[in-house]
Amino acid sequence: MASFAKAAFILATALAVGWALSRHAEEYNEYDPSAVTPGSIPNFPFRNCNTTNGAYRLAPVWRPSGINTYCFKIQVSQDALSCTGACCSADLHKIEFNVSSSCLVAGASVVATVNGVRTRVGATLDKAPAGPVGSAVLRLTQLGLDTTTAQDAEVCLTLKTNRGGQGCTTLEQLCSSPGFPAGTCTAAMFDVACDCCPVSQAGQALPPPPPVIPPVLRPCDVCIAATIVPPANDVRPYRYDSATCAAIQQNIANAMNSLLGGANINVFSPFAPNASQCFDTQIITCGRFNGSDTDALATLTGAVQQQLPAFVEIASGGTVCNPKLEKYTVTVSTINNVADQCLDLSQSASCFLPGVPFPNCTCNTTQGVMPFTVSPTWYAQPANVRWGRNVTEYCFTVNTLQPSQVVPSTCYNANDALAKIEWYASDAFRSAVKGFTVYPAGGSNKTIADSWGATGTDTLKVNLNWNLQQANGGKVCVAIQNPFTMGNICKGALGQCYASIFNRDNSDYCCPIYRTGP
Ligand SMILES: *[C@@H]1O[C@H](CO)[C@@H](O)[C@H](O)[C@H]1NC(C)=O
Ligand SMILES: *[C@@H]1O[C@H](CO)[C@@H](O)[C@H](O)[C@H]1NC(C)=O
Ligand SMILES: *[C@@H]1O[C@H](CO)[C@@H](O)[C@H](O)[C@H]1NC(C)=O
Ligand SMILES: *[C@@H]1O[C@H](CO)[C@@H](O)[C@H](O)[C@H]1NC(C)=O
Ligand SMILES: *[C@@H]1O[C@H](CO)[C@@H](O)[C@H](O)[C@H]1NC(C)=O
Ligand SMILES: *[C@@H]1O[C@H](CO)[C@@H](O)[C@H](O)[C@H]1NC(C)=O
Ligand SMILES: *[C@@H]1O[C@H](CO)[C@@H](O)[C@H](O)[C@H]1NC(C)=O
Ligand SMILES: *[C@@H]1O[C@H](CO)[C@@H](O)[C@H](O)[C@H]1NC(C)=O
């Protein structure tokens, strides 16, 4: 009897507690369906409250923890950006997640823990009474956290299906956050009066980046580009022809292949000439090799760097002071596969020679001020018998410019003739020079005795008085006694000559200087 009474008492107590709990829950349950108008609040959290004001937010990333369990961290910030007034100090009473109504399955449930302890009131999946049709929330209430205890508190949800296996088990299924990656959950954090309901999101951590595996094979596709850049006023245009290109490609290829060998690098496809990589002002030579060994690649880089001046000389056809490249810039640089800068080098050069006291007068030496030029190369031919035995003629070709190319100046008037040509030549060789044979274009050749400037001015000169037609392709040949050569008698330019052309002899005249070589 006593034991029965005791059992009855316990039952009564259990009922009372059950009643008390449900009364208690009801006290906070403002979701009385009859008290709100369905669909009246279209947006989560489907209540009238301030979604931006409050101290509590979800940490941006949740973590999986065991079977169908996901944990969120709570962050507390009471700064002006997060909250104002009472919302900053209010306790955290309730969290609601915006969930998919498809997870509302009879018998399916969610178990919630805070810092590993089950919540006093079970988490509930529920329709949102004031929300639109199909809106649903997961409610965790009576949390009793404050701004101190909520900091870094961990809330874990275990998603359970019903006995039939129906219901949601992942956050991808449970959480509804349009515009965010799948698995992102949107939650609102409520104070007890439900005035403040800051909304925040937590998403899945991004997978760690794949580990960087050092490349086993790093094939390097590298080209060497040789480029000539003409001056703004390109009065003596020089362009690569196919034979020059082939020779330069071969020389660069030989040099590169030997440097690769020196660096002990395995070559997949040696540097080699390729006619389809020949352009007017650029020559490209390519190869492919194994760049996996970084030390070997560094050795190669150093070696190529050291050879760049030599490559510039190759690209210049021997020397950047090649008269054909007078006032040009020559550049040699590497071209890499965009993704992999195996070899990243570049060098530019131009020819700079010391100034010369020539011509011995004050006149305008700017190239292009007259429509006449002297071609960059001279050639040798057996001399007219008139100059005696064992004499060689060194011939300079004159060309003309289009009127549009002539640089306007005060020293030249239209139709001025090509009055004379002067060479900076050593007085010491006066006796070696026999005279000139001149060949005006479209006219007959004639011989002219040699003529020199005042002793000490080192000036050899010939009077021509050619018009544009006579000058266009006209030739002036200097007859010199063997064994001396034109290169021997000229001064100031390393076996080359400075030739200056004149339009007249009185004041304010032009005397553009052109460097010319064999
Ligand atoms: C919400 O609170 C912020 C201050 O944090 C305030 O600026 C804003 O006007 C409030 N919004 C509403 C709808 O009360
Ligand atoms: C809440 O979920 C519903 C779908 O149930 C969606 O239309 C709405 O955009 C969500 N709201 C937020 C703030 O994520
Ligand atoms: C020559 O260069 C062209 C253009 O880059 C390329 O398509 C071709 O394969 C090259 N030929 C050889 C033999 O490498
Ligand atoms: C490329 O070089 C690396 C490092 O020296 C070497 O391990 C690899 O076998 C080479 N691969 C080929 C295809 O030559
Ligand atoms: C021309 O040459 C003479 C003799 O060498 C020299 O004295 C004079 O300074 C020179 N004049 C010019 C303009 O170079
Ligand atoms: C030569 O002529 C050019 C073109 O008119 C001008 O720019 C330059 O200043 C002149 N030089 C001299 C030394 O007169
Ligand atoms: C130069 O002119 C003479 C006639 O005056 C002619 O016989 C000779 O062939 C010409 N020489 C050249 C190289 O044109
Ligand atoms: C021509 O000059 C060379 C030297 O340049 C000399 O060896 C040769 O004997 C000379 N020939 C004649 C026919 O004078």
Automatic annotation (TrEMBL):
Domain Pherophorin: 44-198, 358-512
Pfam families (alphabetical): DUF3707
Organism, as annotated: Volvox carteri f. nagariensis
InterPro entries tied to this protein: Pherophorin
Signal peptide feature range: 1-20
Protein name (Swiss-Prot/TrEMBL): Pherophorin-V4 protein
Keywords assigned by UniProt, alphabetized: Signal
